[in-house]
Write a structure and sequence with these properties.
CATH class of the largest domain: Mainly Beta
CATH architecture of the largest domain: 3 Solenoid
Structural class: alpha/beta
Distance between the termini: 55 Å
Largest sheet: 16 strands, mixed
Number of strands: 38
Number of helices: 9
Oligomer: single chain
Helix content: 10-25%
CATH topology of the largest domain: Pectate Lyase C-like
Strand content: 35-45%
Radius of gyration: 27 Å
Shape: globular
């Protein structure tokens, strides 16, 4: 038995990361449903004995194109033999005062690179294991798997048996020593690895890494949209829905009204939810789909006009399909949106109806990869859409109508915002002077392609220039038709203005630091505001640089940079959240989060300037 690691230091460091930097929530119900794997204990014990007696070398019949497992070896270690490809990683952490979960799936741009080959030689089961993820790169060759009956492992309490491989790089702390291999009834290979810190350390933590694999060539890999869902459940009321929300799950919604205000908090036992004033916020959700049953009329609503109907904070790959959502109140003014997303990447809204009196049909802050298709947004009291600090967003084949008063589309610190084949009709943006149909930040832009504008009223369409391609107009504000089909675009900033803006932003940074040094008795709200100002000014400059690069780089270069940028954004968000939690939240949390965000964004600004604009400028200015 031999082991090789290409990065032993990274392997050992993984177990030392502070627990509060990992965002995770325990999912025992999903785990039990997914991994009710090994059947009755007695049957499994007989099976392993029978396998050993027959001396079967390898009872699998599989190819990369059509992996098939011999029925005679199911429930035995022989069923594990073969080549396995990575499906997803679920990381759970249990620290002194919190439990969290995060998920990475093979469909993610930053997915781990992992595969396993298990073979049987001379009655021994051997595994070749590779797992590369960010800085950690673990490789085991010829690791011997030892059969263990009745493992009584926390993550698989009902498992009859498992196979264990010793981790040669683990710290000598009980619990860290093994990789544990299980196989499920659905023919999935599941590998667990635990990391505990030294019991003498000030802060206790316990990580559990759960990696799930499918056989190479599995037809499930041909369905990337649905491969991330490990199970599907059906619900028929609001309480069932709230308690069923789990990562890696598709939830099918029966027809009916789902009134979240009518749900009693004592009936909701889901730790992924935060309850406030009769509304529920889903936190740290990964690979979650809420989908109306075919032909079902599904109505989401709340009775509080001041809260969003559905809210998600932090997560990745959230899909809503076939749902009607709105506030169940008399028409008037609300201060809660219909759908609200904060720090979520990968949002898919399809064939939904989002109605007021919500402030906006869709409100998103610091969200990316948003796709809204075949959706009707209507009767909102502030506007239709609000996007802040967000990007890579497409509205396609949508109707946005019958809303009034303020800006219909509010965009601040955004990039790559597109509306295609959408209809805007019967909207009013004229509550007072200075209200625009499209409200943009100074360096923001939006593109409207093949959109129709019918019977909309506004003082002015936008405060900054937008792109209008093949759009049509009927009975709108006077002069609006002159904008159409002119392909008017925001002027792309030039190199000199980017560098000048960097110097201005750097001076503002120094001014803020001077304020902090001159007044050591600032109130916490003032400190929070200064940190927010610092973060916003670097984020604004970053978006201006992004606009410049989009107008100067080749598309192939820009596409590669987009992928890099998405990974950077996720890392930045994770660092901001970890910083905010470092002192247990409280009034300092905004300052810690914004301060970290400002530092990370400044570094990114300087990297992009140095790499693409002027290789010596930043170093020269800061000397």
């Amino acid at each position: 038995m031999s082991y090789v690691s290409t990065n032993e230091t990274a392997v050992s460091q993984r177990s030392k990361r502070p627990a509060k930097t990992v965002a995770l929530i325990l999912m025992a119900i999903l785990m039990m449903g997914l991994l009710a794997a090994c059947g009755d204990k007695g049957e499994a014990g007989d099976a392993i004995q029978q396998s050993s007696e027959t001396g079967t070398e390898q009872n699998t019949d599989q190819t990369a194109e059509n992996p098939v497992v011999d029925e005679s070896v199911k429930g035995t270690p022989d069923a594990m033999t073969g080549d396995w490809a990575f499906l997803c990683r679920i990381i759970r952490t249990d620290s002194d005062d919190m439990q969290y979960e995060s998920v990475y799936s093979c469909r993610d741009t930053d997915a781990p690179d992992s595969e396993i080959h298990i073979r049987k030689e001379d009655e021994k089961f051997l595994a070749d294991y590779k797992f590369a993820f960010y800085e950690a790169n673990t490789m085991l060759y010829g690791a011997e798997l030892q059969y263990k009956q009745n493992p009584e492992y926390e993550g698989m309490k009902d498992a009859a048996w498992c196979m264990e491989a010793t981790d040669p790089f683990a710290e000598k702390i009980p619990g860290n020593e093994y990789y544990r291999f299980f196989i499920t009834d659905e023919d999935r290979l599941v590998v667990f690895k635990d990391y505990y810190n030294d019991p003498e350390d000030e802060y206790y933590y316990h990580y559990t890494y759960m990696d799930i694999y499918l056989r190479k060539g599995s037809p499930q890999f041909d369905d990337p949209e649905n491969i991330c869902y490990l199970d599907t459940v059906t619900v028929s009321n609001a309480t069932e829905l709230l308690n069923s929300i789990r990562n890696n799950r598709r939830i099918i919604l029966k027809a009916g009204e789902y009134n979240f205000s009518a749900v009693s908090d004592k009936d909701v036992t889901n730790s992924m939810l935060k309850s406030e004033y009769g509304a529920y916020e889903v936190q740290d959700a990964y690979n979650l789909c809420l989908e109306a049953e075919d032909g079902a009329d599904v109505q989401f609503c709340i009775e509080d006009p001041y809260m969003p109907v559905v809210s998600f904070e932090c997560g990745r790959n959230i899909k809503l399909s076939g749902i009607t959502a709105g506030h169940k109140v008399e028409p008037g003014y609300c201060s809660g949106s219909v759908l609200r997303f904060d720090n979520v990447s990968g949002i898919d809204i399809d064939s939904c109806n989002l109605y007021g009196c919500g402030t906006y049909g869709l409100e998103a802050s610091y969200c990316y990869d948003i796709n809204v298709t075949n959706t009707d947004i209507y009767e909102c009291t502030y506007g239709l859409v609000s996007l802040i600090g967000s990007g890579d967003t497409l509205f396609e084949n949508c109707t946005l109508r019958d809303s009034k008063d303020l800006s219909m589309i509010t965009l601040e610190s955004v990039y790559n915002i597109n509306f295609e084949n959408c209809e805007f009709r019967n909207n009013v943006s004229d509550a007072f002077d200075g209200v625009y149909f499209v409200q943009l930040g100074e360096y923001d832009s939006a593109t409207f392609k093949k959109c129709s504008f019918v019977n909309n009223r506004f003082n002015a369409f936008s405060n900054y220039e937008v792109t209008m391609e093949d759009c049509t107009s009927d009975n709108n504000h006077a002069g609006f038709s002159d904008m159409l089909n002119s392909s008017v675009k925001e002027t792309v900033p030039d190199k000199e203005s980017i560098l000048e803006n960097y110097k201005i932003t750097l001076q503002k940074q120094q001014d803020i630091e001077s304020k902090l040094q001159s007044d050591s008795f600032m109130s916490q709200p003032t400190l929070n505001n200064l940190a927010s100002e610092e973060y916003e000014m670097w984020d604004t400059l970053l978006n201006r640089i992004w606009s410049y690069l989009g107008g100067t780089l080749e598309e192939s270069e820009m596409e590669a940079l987009r992928t890099e940028q998405k990974n950077w954004i996720r890392d930045k968000e994770a660092k901001m959240k970890a910083a905010g939690e470092e002192n247990g939240g409280g009034t300092m949390q905004p300052m810690l989060e914004y301060g970290t965000g400002a530092d990370e964004t400044r570094k990114r600004v300087e990297e992009l300037i140095t790499q693409f604009i002027d290789s010596e400028f930043v170093a020269t200015i800061n000397t």
